[in-house]
Specification:
Layout: H1 2-7, H2 20-24, H3 74-89, H4 91-94, H5 112-128, H6 151-163
Length: 174
């Protein structure tokens, strides 16, 4: 489907975050995300709701298909079908467990302490409690201050960011 979109054979397609590199390269345009919130990986792409389009009723359920070129010999299709049926009948495949979790949330700036505490208790604690888990929590802060930031606040926030070992931080005159 992506190839058809790139070639101009189709005009519109519901994709996934796998296509973000193509969006960033300008090869395709992402118009909206179907979730309730913008994606952390693509914060510039609005939600359907933000575009004034009702998101309820817009569902993109997941499904998987196995495709072959038209004209593929029947014997090849039969062998592929048998292999898929065997693989799906394998009890290990039926009980496969997910190995990765990801989540993005926007917090109310006036309630960060409360909300971050709940996230730590209700999500992070469950994940870090799993044997062998490797959990990373990243906090991203963006603040726009129309009237500008006073010098004393710039100094305090900059020093606190250093003390708290932020990987990156800074103020811009935009």
């Amino acid at each position: 489907m992506v190839q058809d979109l790139l070639a101009g054979n189709i005009d519109l397609w519901f994709g996934s975050t796998d296509q973000l590199p193509l969006v960033r390269a300008g090869s395709i345009k992402a118009y909206a995300v179907t979730g309730e919130m913008r994606l952390a990986a693509a914060p510039d792409i609005p939600t359907f709701d933000e575009m004034g389009l009702p998101a309820d009723g817009v569902e993109t359920p997941g499904w998987h298909g196995l495709f072959a070129p038209s004209g593929t010999p029947r014997e090849v299709i039969s062998k592929l079908n048998a292999a898929v049926v065997d693989a799906l009948a394998d009890p290990a495949a039926a009980t496969a467990k997910p190995h990765r979790y990801y989540g993005t949330v926007t917090l109310d700036a006036s309630r960060v302490g409360r909300d971050a505490g709940r996230i730590a208790d209700e999500v992070v604690a469950h994940l870090t409690g799993l044997v062998g888990s490797n959990v990373t929590v990243t906090l991203e802060i963006e603040a726009n201050i129309p009237g500008g930031v006073p010098d004393n606040v710039v100094r305090t926030v900059t020093e606190n960011s250093r003390t708290l070992k932020f990987k990156s931080h800074g103020f811009k005159n935009e």
